[in-house]
Amino acid sequence: MLRRLLLIIPTLLGILIINFVIIQAAPGGPVEQMIAKIEGFDGATSRIAGGGAG
Q1: Would you kindly state where each structural domain of the chain is located, as residue ranges?
Q2: Collapsing DSSP states into helix, strand and coil, what is residue 54?
């Protein structure tokens, strides 16, 4: 029982580290993504419509 409780600590720490790395690796922040969607500069939409470089 105590062993399982002690194993929770490194497991949760590992999950937190993995989540942090994934969030940091994502391009742009959540605010920039929301602004881009509001202004209509979503990457996939602009490529389909032909209104963007790239």
Answers
A1: 2-49
A2: coil
